[in-house]
Known about the structure:
This protein is α+β, with helices and mostly antiparallel strands and 150 residues long.
Amino acid sequence: MAVAVGQPAPDFNAIDQNGEPVSLSQFQGKKVVLYFYPKDSTPGCTAQACNLRDHHSQLLEAGYVVLGVSTDSPKRHQNFINKNELPFTLIADEDKKVHELYDTWQLKKFMGREYMGTVRTTFIIDEAGNIAEIINKVKTKDHSAQILGD
């Protein structure tokens, strides 16, 4: 099922970088930036995470909670957070259940090769838990501006 603007955002239960449970419903009443990215410590994903880090105070002021999702393990997430001083939660979706809910695990092509992977996508979820915006063409070096509408 494809997720669309105006629909309720699918709730999920997963674990974060510390192995602690995290669900979308625990952020009810807050605006959530739920961003899916392919892999910790790769150039594009690091640029995106650091851009969100550098503008985290503006995102907080605008009322957003930032949650990153990839298929990396909690340990890899912890290393990525420590290395880049990331101030937000990263969700370890090793079984791809959250990816499947948001339809971000898809067939991709690279240099003539087909494989399954994460489609870099950001979902902006409003205080009522509905999808307010979907950003498909993510600018990794300028992502917070896309979210804040600068």
